Amino acid sequence: MLNSVSEVLFHNYEGSNYNLSNISYLFTMKDWGFWPSVLSNAGIGQTFLNYESKSSSGADFKASVTSLDISKTYVIEGGPKDTLNKLRSVIMDLLPIKSTSGEWVIIPGMGVVLPNIIPIPFIYGGELDISSQYGDFSTEEAFGYSFFGNLGMEIGEWEMLLGMRWSKVEFSDINSGAENFIFSGTSFMFGLGWGF
Length: 196
Fold this sequence. Notes:
Layout: E1 4-14, E2 18-29, E3 42-54, E4 60-72, E5 74-75, H1 78-94, E6 104-113, E7 125-132, E8 135-139, E9 141-155, E10 158-172, E11 181-195
Antiparallel strand pairs: 1-2, 1-11, 2-3, 3-4, 4-6, 4-7, 5-6, 6-9, 7-8, 9-10, 10-11
């Protein structure tokens, strides 16, 4: 198993009245022997999320959020691994990849945005811009959290990744008397990891 892995996942969706895109990266430390055992296979990273929507009244909402992500990697063994290896053989038939062995991993984790509590620029934060018939408004007061799970198939020093992420973000202090703006949703993500 590789000592550490860098992973990048992507998602982009264009709906009838909203667009959502995000990119996530994780750096996972495997067992190097000098970290506390609780940190073995722990990961840290960020997600950059962009959201745009248009309300029925014609108001435009544009939000960008950066979250701090933490995760833990678990190697899949036994019967579940045997089942996944059958999927691997199908993938190998479809793609020009010669590797027929390697670990399967599952990576659960969560992301947070807490600028109202502990502001840490460039680590996490959010910004919302609203254009409406009542004027233009903006705020950087965001609170949010997300939960995600990634499935990884190791191919030599690479990993193919499939993930799902659920996020909820609330913006406040938009304008005197205005309601908080909340959006939430689920996104499916695809990506690659590289181990060294």
